[in-house]
């Protein structure tokens, strides 16, 4: 039986957080056993905020190394850099021409990001069209992402449908694959906000490369809710529910089991144990990351991945050109 296709992407921006890991990367690793997976370091998306060239180069390699360290097997998945496959930019432009100003204006991520920035580039606005191109080039069935990407995926489906209606059914309509628990890991200093590396307060997130003592400090400082009880209730106990989610995903224990374990025990003890669980969860990833950075064979992996990706993207792009009347 032919395996279903999975595609997902991650931006090469400095630090990756526990939110990236639990919301997306962990699913990427699990899916490699049962699906035909394409994973992409989306450096063209990073251009929307005009990064420093040298930093971008370094971050691209570091993120790729982190993905392998987190458990991706380059022999099982296709891991590549977006700009190595020129078809992404080409289809991105064409789909930009099919997405409306109204649709792009409604994207909450654009609204949030443009509020934070002094300079808002055209790329930041049309970013979801490039994301749609990434996904549609590969006949993708499933897209493992965090909750914050749901709206972009809905737009991807709308654009694909529009294309199919107008030019003939070429594109597969992708489904989001968002974990029920962990799809939205919240900030440690404010359970109303998503954990994000762009938060200026580094105590609000756990970086995947944070040393053990930093992790301990950040978790001990994490805000909690009123009352002493430890149970899962995202509405009324947002902070503790978020910590329980992290505990559960890092330890493999269910939330119910954790609620039982901590019955009658206080936040202090809970947080102390949680810190150790997170430290242990990240320890092997950090060790592998350091090895990979030293051995330096990430470039090789990415080169091979780009070749495999191009072999799928090029014929797809050829069909798009044909259908849209771009071949004369
Ligand atoms: P990015 O780079 O911001 O994040 C990478 C992945 O991590 C998830 N994530 C989280 N999940 C749960 N809780 C959090 N606090 C959290 N923070 C981040 C994101 O949902 C994402 O899955 N636009 C995308 C990149 C992209 C892409 C694609 C994704 C480009 N093309 C095609 C899928 C398919 C982004 O900026 O992700």
Automatic annotation (TrEMBL):
It comes from the Bacteria. PROSITE patterns: AA_TRNA_LIGASE_I. This is Tryptophan--tRNA ligase. InterPro entries: aa-tRNA-synth_I_CS (IPR001412), aa-tRNA-synth_Ic (IPR002305), Rossmann-like_a/b/a_fold (IPR014729), Trp-tRNA-ligase (IPR002306), Trp-tRNA-ligase_bac-type (IPR024109), Trp-tRNA_synthetase (IPR050203). A motif ('HIGH' region) lies at residues 12-20. A motif ('KMSKS' region) lies at residues 194-198. L-tryptophan binds at residue 134. It catalyses: tRNA(Trp) + L-tryptophan + ATP = L-tryptophyl-tRNA(Trp) + AMP + diphosphate + H(+). ATP binds at residues 11-13, 19-20, 146-148, 185, 194-198. Keywords: Aminoacyl-tRNA synthetase, ATP-binding, Cytoplasm, Ligase, Nucleotide-binding, Protein biosynthesis. The keyword Aminoacyl-tRNA synthetase applies. Belongs to the class-I aminoacyl-tRNA synthetase family. Homodimer. Pfam families: tRNA-synt_1b. One of its GO terms (molecular function) is tryptophan-tRNA ligase activity. The keyword ATP-binding applies. Its EC number is 6.1.1.2. SUPFAM superfamilies: Nucleotidylyl transferase (SSF52374).
């Amino acid at each position: 039986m032919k395996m279903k296709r999975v595609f997902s992407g991650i931006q090469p921006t400095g630090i990756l957080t526990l939110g990236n890991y639990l919301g997306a990367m962990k699913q990427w690793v699990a899916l490699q056993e049962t699906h035909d997976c394409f994973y992409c370091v989306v450096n063209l998306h990073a251009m929307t905020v005009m990064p420093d060239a040298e930093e971008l180069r370094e971050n691209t390699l570091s993120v790729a190394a982190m993905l392998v360290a987190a458990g991706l097997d380059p022999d099982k998945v296709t891991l590549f850099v977006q700009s190595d496959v020129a078809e992404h930019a080409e289809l991105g432009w064409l789909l930009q021409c099919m997405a409306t100003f109204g649709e792009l204006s409604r994207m909450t991520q654009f609204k949030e990001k443009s509020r934070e920035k002094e300079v808002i580039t055209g790329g930041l606005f049309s970013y979801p069209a490039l994301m749609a191109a990434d996904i549609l080039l590969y006949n993708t069935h499933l897209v493992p992402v965090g909750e914050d990407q749901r709206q972009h995926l809905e737009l991807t489906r709308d654009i694909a449908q529009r294309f199919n209606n107008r030019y003939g059914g070429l594109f597969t309509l992708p489904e989001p694959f968002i974990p029920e628990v962990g799809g939205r890991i919240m900030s440690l200093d404010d359970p109303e906000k998503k954990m994000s590396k762009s938060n200026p307060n580094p105590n609000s997130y756990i970086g995947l490369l944070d040393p053990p003592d930093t992790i301990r400090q950040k978790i001990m400082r994490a805000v909690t809710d009123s009352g002493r009880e430890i149970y899962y209730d995202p509405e009324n106990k947002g902070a503790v529910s978020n910590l329980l989610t992290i505990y559960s995903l890092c330890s493999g224990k269910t939330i119910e089991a954790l609620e039982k374990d901590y019955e009658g025990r206080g936040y202090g003890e809970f947080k102390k144990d949680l810190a150790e669980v997170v430290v242990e969860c990240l320890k092997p990833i950090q060790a592998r990351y350091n090895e990979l950075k030293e051995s330096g064979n990430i470039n090789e992996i990415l080169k091979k991945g780009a070749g495999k990706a191009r072999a799928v993207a090029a014929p797809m792009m050829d069909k798009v050109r044909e259908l849209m009347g771009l071949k004369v």
